[in-house]
Design brief:
Elements: E1 2-4, H1 12-19, H2 25-33, E2 37-39, E3 42-43, E4 55-58, E5 77-80, E6 84-89, H3 106-114, E7 138-144, H4 147-158, E8 163-171, E9 178-182, E10 185-187, E11 195-197, E12 202-203, E13 206-215, E14 218-225, H5 232-239, E15 264-272, E16 279-283, H6 288-298
Helix pairs in contact: 1-2
């Protein structure tokens, strides 16, 4: 697989992450560390910068058989055909295995539900996973059942035609009815478990928001992602001083509105079907905890 740099001065891992949307930046960094990215026959260093016209060769390792165990975990399947699967993920379910969550994840459930019918592009730990939502965020998630579908959906993520709309309750009031947060997101400089708005080692991040309803000290918002960075809406809302209610990481530590975690729900998902070309839109109701928080606000 070849990629040619169009401009100079970009970090190679950043450049490859932007031109290979089917791979995560961490996966690209692993390929660089393993010597799987070469230029002119020589391995490229992880912190190297691009030069215009440089041609990079990327050797993708063969997909190994996954060691993940299929688990009979209930799934709320909103839609399914031979190419894609749309899931309404409940709060508390981790999307894929990671440190501290080796099983009991959405991927384990998908392996039980789909068997061998999942794309392998994202490697052995994330079969079928096109995009993620946080463990304590609920809502719609699309899964690719083959590599053809995965490549199409990854391209739609890259050109922003795969649209994701969230709803959340945030602290504070807004004078405006709508707006946009355009601020790059990267790893927090001192707390590696958090993300932050930063210019250092960051990626562009854009969130469009609009007010659904106002409740004095809180506001019910609709947020549309233009990009999809880790914790993007949570970070952006905190950055503009309106952290999401119930978010102990980016908001207040004390419990509020009867919430157990961030009040954030992936409400709507729109994409072009990889095989038919049909535009498809799915919506899902607000979960019970979200609805109860709104009821509390209406009764204040």
């Amino acid at each position: 697989m070849k990629r040619t740099a169009e401009q100079s001065g970009q970090r190679v891992d950043v450049f490859l992450a932007r031109t290979l949307p089917e791979l995560t930046r961490s996966a690209i960094q692993r390929l660089l560390e393993q010597g799987c990215v070469t230029c002119g026959g020589r391995p490229v260093k992880k912190n190297a910068k691009t030069e215009a016209g440089q041609e990079f060769d990327i050797l993708l390792p063969e997909i190994r058989e996954t060691e993940l165990v299929p688990q009979d975990i209930p799934l709320n399947v909103v839609y399914e055909d031979g190419d894609v699967l749309v899931i309404d993920k409940p709060k508390g379910l981790v999307v894929h295995p990671a440190a501290g969550h080796e099983d009991g994840t959405l991927v384990n459930a998908l392996l039980h539900h789909c068997g061998d019918s999942l794309s392998g592009i994202n490697g052995e730990k994330r079969p079928g996973i096109v995009h993620r939502i946080d463990m304590d965020t609920s809502g719609l998630l699309i899964v690719a059942k083959n590599d053809f579908a995965h490549q199409s959906l990854a391209a739609q993520l890259q050109d922003h035609s795969l649209r994701r709309v969230y709803e959340c309750i945030v602290r504070g009031g807004f004078r405006e009815d709508s707006g946009t947060v355009d601020a790059p997101i990267g790893r927090h400089p001192t707390d590696r478990k958090r993300m932050a708005v930063t210019e250092k080692n960051s990626r562009p991040a854009v969130t469009h928001w609009e007010v659904i309803d106002r409740y004095g000290a809180y506001t019910h918002l609709r947020c549309r992602l233009e990009t999809g960075r880790t914790h993007q809406i949570r970070v952006h809302m905190a950055y503009i001083h309106h952290p999401i209610a119930g978010d102990p990481v980016y908001g207040v530590k004390k419990p509020e509105l009867g919430l157990t975690s961030q009040c954030l729900h992936a409400r709507e998902l729109t994409f072009t079907h990889p095989r038919t070309g049909e535009e498809m839109t799915f919506t899902t109701p607000l979960p019970e905890e979200f609805q109860k928080a709104l009821a509390r606000l209406r009764n204040l």
